[in-house]
Design brief:
about 475 residues, alpha/beta, Immunoglobulin-like, 2 domains, 11 helices
């Protein structure tokens, strides 16, 4: 019998890596080749640690506030990434991060901050960023910040051009939207003129604003799927969709900022959502159940406020977070996302170690995206095993996929045959990008059946390959 503490076979385990202000990465912007190497070493270490703790997805903050972390033709590289202009390096932080994630079996999703464009003042001076200068006709000032105006038709064109640039040029697994909503306390957001010019027959500004966000989501989903249908579309959304019936407390809700993620799921314009549920106990548990009811058979992933364990924040215990994971599993959510990575990598309050030893003890596959594609790849036909120094070397025959669609492999082992692939403990390594692995040899005399499955970008898994039986140990075979 499986308990909700044990690792499930399929589950999203994502970590947000914030680049704005260098919150998670990098620790400093680069100005020379040595500092580029330092940035690369930092991100490799982060991905390594996440991989060893059996995470399987990264949200790397790719667009910040009118600036980006890749070599864009539309917006400048963030000053938190690069402190000087350069033409002496081909280093592209996004491409590098994607490649390093894929080497270790993690998906990499581009975290895209949608409407905010930065503060009015930077170091006491008027914000003169190139993106702001080029988009004055689309931006509004609100409470000391600049925002793209969601009601301006040109805004969608601009944002879609950025998304197309990423999707067409990078081997990304997903686009993850953030701040795809109106600002906090947006009742006085200055868009009266935009409303008058672009009503589209909608009578109230509230409904019009919600429609503005929905129109963007619908359009960008279709554009992404046109270029690469396997690229997933997700958003981090306000943790409360709406106030619950019969509850006296009133909350900051998604609908209150013109954000309607249930609509996106019901209309088939999102593959999953990540409600930012950074609250304890009765502000968490009832809303998990509410989100599940609103999922419309798409994936819902609870966003966990790991920063709350910081003594300078709310000083939560790790058990508070672990209870939230167990409850999310019990309610049938599709995984968890952690904000922020800094606390995982620093192993604050021993959280990463506890995950690895308990709730994330085994690797997990990502839940299938059956509404996009439900046809599994063919299984590998042949598998071989041999000794290579202190490792067991496994290799297998290739599986050919459709053009431009990658195939990965999952390695299983069991003391009995047939291998039960429904058990997470039999999954040794997930999403291997090559046709070989090296496993440490067991010093005890142990016999295992080994087999492999093919796994595509829609998270469909093939049948098992033929197995090999191999005995490891100190005695000559």
């Amino acid at each position: 019998m499986i308990t909700f503490s044990q690792s499930p076979k399929e589950e999203i385990r994502a970590a947000w890596i914030a680049t704005n202000y260098g919150l998670d990465w990098p620790s400093k912007p680069y100005s020379n080749s040595n500092e580029i190497n330092d940035q690369q070493d930092e991100i490799i270490d982060m991905i390594d640690q996440l991989s060893r703790a059996n995470f399987n997805m990264v949200f790397i903050q790719t667009r910040l506030r009118g600036d980006v972390i890749y070599n864009s033709k539309i917006e400048p590289v963030s000053p938190y990434i690069r402190s000087v202009e350069n033409n002496w390096s081909k280093y592209d932080p996004l491409a590098f991060t994607i490649a390093e994630c894929h080497k270790r079996g993690l998906e990499c999703h581009a975290w895209f901050v949608t409407y905010p464009m930065g503060p009015e003042k930077v170091k006491g001076e008027e914000n003169e960023s190139p993106a702001l200068k080029r988009n004055k006709d689309k931006t509004k000032r609100h409470k000391g910040e600049f925002y793209l105006d969601p009601g301006n038709p040109k805004t969608n064109d601009y944002l879609v051009s950025l998304i197309e640039e990423i999707v067409k040029n990078y081997n990304i697994d997903g686009i993850h939207f953030d701040y795809v909503r109106y600002p906090d306390k947006s009742s006085d957001f200055p868009d009266d003129n935009t409303f008058k010019r672009n009503k589209r027959g909608i009578k109230t500004k509230g409904e019009w604003r919600k429609d503005n966000i929905n129109r963007f989501i619908y359009e960008v989903y279709e554009v992404i799927k046109y270029w690469k249908p396997w690229v997933q579309v997700s958003s981090s959304v306000i943790g409360f969709y709406d106030n619950l019936p019969n509850e006296k407390r009133k909350h900051w809700t998604a609908l209150g900022v013109s954000q309607d993620p249930e609509n996106w799921l019901a209309a088939g314009k999102h593959d999953f959502i990540v409600p930012m549920m950074y609250y304890p106990d009765d502000l968490f548990f009832p809303f998990v159940s509410d989100w599940k009811k609103r999922s419309h058979d798409r994936h819902v992933v609870s966003g966990l406020g790991l920063f709350k364990i910081d003594a300078k924040s709310d000083n939560w215990s790790t058990e508070t977070i672990k209870k939230q994971i167990r409850f999310s599993r019990k309610q049938g959510l599709n995984g968890n996302a952690w904000f922020r990575s800094k606390y995982l990598i620093n192993n604050t309050k021993n959280i990463l170690t506890e995950l690895k030893n308990d709730l994330y003890q085994h690797p997990a596959l990502l839940p299938p995206l059956t509404w996009l594609d439900s046809i599994p790849p063919f299984p590998p036909l042949e598998m071989e095993a041999s000794i290579s120094g202190i490792f067991l070397y496994l290799n297998w025959s290739p599986v050919l996929q459709w053009e431009n669609e990658a195939v990965y492999y999952n390695v299983y082992r069991s003391e009995t045959w047939p291998i039960d692939t429904s058990k997470a403990e039999n999954l040794v390594i997930a999403r291997v990008p090559t046709r070989m692995v090296f496993l440490p040899l067991n010093t005890k005399e142990t016999g295992y059946y080994y087999a492999v499955t093919a796994y595509d970008r829609y998270h469909n898994e093939s049948e098992l390959s033929d197995a090999v039986y191999f005995v490891t140990g100190p005695y000559e075979k």
